[in-house]
Amino acid sequence: MGMKSLFLTAMLVATSTGLVNAQTAQRQVVEDGGTGPFKSEVVGDASCPGFTVYRPQNLKEVVARQGALPVIVYANGACFNNNVEMRLLLSEVASYGYVAAAIGPYDEADVMAQWRGVLRSAFPETKGDVIMANGERIQPLTAEEKKAQQEEQAKQREKAAKNAKKGKKQQPAVPQFRTYPKMLLEVLDWLTDQNAAQGSEYYHCLDLDHVAAMGQSCGGAQVLGVAHDPRIKTCVMLNSGIGDMEMMGSTKESLKNLHTPMFYMIGGPGDIAYANAQKDYERIADNIPVVMLNSKDGHSGTYYEKHGGNYAKVVVKWLDWQLKGRVGQSAIFLDDEYLKMKFPDWQGVRKNF
Description:
Elements: H1 3-16, E1 24-28, E2 40-45, E3 51-56, H2 59-66, E4 69-75, H3 87-94, E5 99-103, H4 111-121, E6 130-131, E7 137-138, H5 143-165, H6 183-196, E8 206-216, H7 218-226, E9 232-238, E10 262-266, H8 274-283, E11 290-294, H9 309-324, H10 331-334, H11 336-342, E12 347-351
Parallel strand pairs: 4-5, 4-8, 8-9, 9-10, 10-11
Antiparallel strand pairs: 1-2, 2-3, 3-5, 6-7, 11-12
Helix pairs in contact: 1-6, 3-9
């Protein structure tokens, strides 16, 4: 375990003993706080530096009006230690009355700058035009740019081969991220302690009987790694599936540990997670309700669109149904005609309902 992980664990242990109450150190508002009934904010907390919290502004006032809010624990694509790429979606979800704790320290990086490179290098050909939330139209890498990229990669391989012949060991690059599935449970522990601690910003604000674990791509593997925890009441798999892989300690055997309704939101055949998600769907036991929706958005979904795009809309509907008991939100998951009316290009399957 690296020093950063040790530091995070130490902070969480300290918090769990009641030594440190939540201390908001940074905050920002994204896209005017979302389109939901409660304007959201993004918060960095000094007592939990390895995570970012997305929540309604004026949290105590919202809870006084609505009651305690359901909780989401979120793991990032690539299992990255940064959640900026999902900032639009998580801010939007929070505006509908949720508190989401995402792996990765608070960061004020430009969301559009993060997405620009991702989209150009992995352009979703099945989608056509790609327009980001700021109105910028993204084009795929040109032939010249692809050639330059390939040439640079070839140079790096050649250099590594020469060093190997000379007996020189190439120093591995310092990893840009180091996260692990249990972090989702660690931050859930932190939230649980804060909810019980008088003086905490979260005191009696959280509905810990209604918790979702959500992850995108590699983050979905981390969700499967903790899905056995009885506190988790539903799992949301975004552009993710384990298939026959082993990732973050999860394998197809992890599907046997599921005990809650599952939602897979996949980007269609153009999504690199598509085949694995199909295998998961077939393998999930007959006592576990599961819905899979497929769009044509590829592996990047709609997370770079205004307010997280259509993916954010269906995530809110799933959470409202599963965590708030709003049965009216279930139509898009259970009724093919309604799904086709709302999203003509999408397809859906379900079982065990």
